[in-house]
């Protein structure tokens, strides 16, 4: 796994939390991701939406891409398509994706890098595997997270952040066995590089086989743990969470997870998990295809603005494919 790593014994350690006096968050439910085809035909595993979205607020969608070993000619991406009203966060663990948008943003996302795109008032973008990956095949593994924007920020100017693997904050568990990467937000006073409109924390942890990881967590944030590979247990009651499953936590001040002592081959380095949390926005959500707003009328306006060319112009050398925004407007 090329995602940035280090010897955990050399890293700053997280604080040790007292077992008896800590309000550990219980696991409220475990959700198994459903499978979908996206873009030009690549498969994703999606734990949400599909469950009660209020449990994930301010997050809207999580797509787990791979891990997959592509044969030559198999790798696929997305055609040009628009967005408005939220942020897309693409984190590539293995392999590479290249991105362009109609504001001029873009670049290569590879091996532990993150592309953070704030769609805001609206733009179009395209995400594709590199020509080398298409031609030769190879390993690809990544995730895309959609983060909602509150009503007051839904029409902010589009913004693009390149977060290289070297930029993330690296910490170790309190016993020095596991690595925690802070991509955005704050953990025990350590901040990640991602700049967010909505207060969130976004972590990738490798929990050593048989090891326990404890994390202080803001009481006003929700808390989600998604297993990228391997298996383990979540919460004080030890609920099993395997690859492709999401643990949704209840209230409390801290999280506890434990990696299984025996891991499958894909998890030989440990249990690979995403840990997500954020301050719920608690506003009405109207979503249709690539747009997420607060009302149906705002969705109709988004379609009209896209069709009128107010979300950027696709470069002339590229021919746009049919996208979700070409569909009929939603009915009442």
TrEMBL record:
Pfam families: Pirin, Pirin_C
Membrane-traversing stretches: none
Gene3D superfamilies: Jelly Rolls
Annotated Pirin C-terminal domain residues: 202-312
Ranges for domain Pirin N-terminal: 42-147
Protein origin, superkingdom: Bacteria
UniProt similarity note: Belongs to the pirin family.
Protein name: Pirin family protein
Upper lineage: Bacteria, Bacillati, Actinomycetota, Actinomycetes, Streptosporangiales
């Amino acid at each position: 796994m090329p995602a940035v790593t280090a010897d955990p014994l050399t890293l700053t350690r997280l604080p040790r939390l007292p077992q008896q006096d800590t309000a550990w968050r219980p696991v409220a439910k475990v959700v198994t991701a459903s499978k979908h085809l996206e873009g030009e035909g690549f498969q994703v595993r999606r734990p949400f939406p599909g469950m009660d979205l209020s449990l994930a607020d301010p997050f809207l969608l999580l797509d787990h891409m791979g891990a997959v070993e592509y044969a030559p000619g198999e790798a696929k991406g997305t055609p040009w398509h628009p967005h408005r009203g939220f942020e897309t966060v693409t984190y590539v663990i293995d392999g590479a994706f290249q991105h362009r948008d109609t504001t001029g943003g873009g670049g290569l996302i590879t091996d532990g890098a993150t592309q953070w795109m704030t769609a805001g008032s609206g733009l179009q973008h395209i995400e594709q595997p590199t020509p080398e990956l298409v031609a030769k095949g190879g390993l690809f593994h990544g995730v895309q997270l959609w983060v909602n924007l509150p009503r007051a920020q839904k029409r902010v100017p589009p913004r693009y952040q390149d977060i290289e693997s070297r930029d993330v904050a690296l910490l170790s568990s309190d016993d020095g066995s596991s690595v925690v990467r802070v991509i955005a937000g704050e953990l025990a006073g350590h901040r990640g590089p991602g700049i967010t409109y909505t207060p969130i924390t976004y972590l990738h942890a490798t929990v050593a086989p048989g090891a326990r990881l404890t994390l202080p967590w803001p009481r006003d944030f929700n808390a989600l743990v998604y297993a990228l590979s391997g298996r383990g247990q979540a919460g004080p009651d030890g609920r099993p969470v395997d690859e492709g499953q999401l643990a949704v936590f209840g209230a409390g001040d801290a999280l506890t997870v434990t990696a299984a002592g025996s891991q499958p081959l894909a998890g030989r380095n440990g249990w690979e998990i995403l840990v997500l949390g954020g301050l719920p926005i608690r506003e009405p959500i109207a979503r249709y295809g690539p747009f997420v707003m607060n009302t149906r009328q705002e969705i109709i306006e988004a379609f009209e603005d896209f069709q009128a060319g107010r979300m950027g112009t696709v470069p002339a050398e590229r021919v746009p494919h049919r996208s979700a925004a070409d569909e009929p407007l939603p009915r009442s």
